[in-house]
């Protein structure tokens, strides 16, 4: 029995100038450990920048939180992700760096595992996220924090 191979097909191709750039800074106030959906704020920055087709990069300027593109429909997914990260970097793992508390070093490891930036194609001024996808800031520390995010768009104008 012959197995049919997976196939990829090229869809619409759009071309244009990539001479437009825009930077925005977002401040996100967290309540402690958990995921904060920042998709609407990034979309607003793109709209205000007059973004057309291009690429948006979202970068968080901290070492104890991170960014991820993840499911936006079920809150249980967010809870399970926090639990999975806790199992991967538990507080009681004998960390040497503990000057800022027992949640700090595990937060650094979690940020390294999940990453501090995401890149999303932009088509017609809108992020090309899937229907169930959103951009989340993941707070890995117990206390509330103010987190700074830099949004950089490069591409064409709307």
From TrEMBL:
- The domain of life for this entry's organism is Bacteria
At the highest ranks, the source species' classification is: Bacteria, Pseudomonadati, Pseudomonadota, Alphaproteobacteria, Hyphomicrobiales
The text of the family note is: Belongs to the UPF0047 family.
Among the Pfam families in the record, one is: YjbQ
Sorted alphabetically, which InterPro entries does this protein's record hold?
UPF0047_YjbQ-like, YjbQ-like_sf
User: What name does UniProt use for this protein?
Assistant: Secondary thiamine-phosphate synthase enzyme
Organism the protein comes from: Hansschlegelia beijingensis
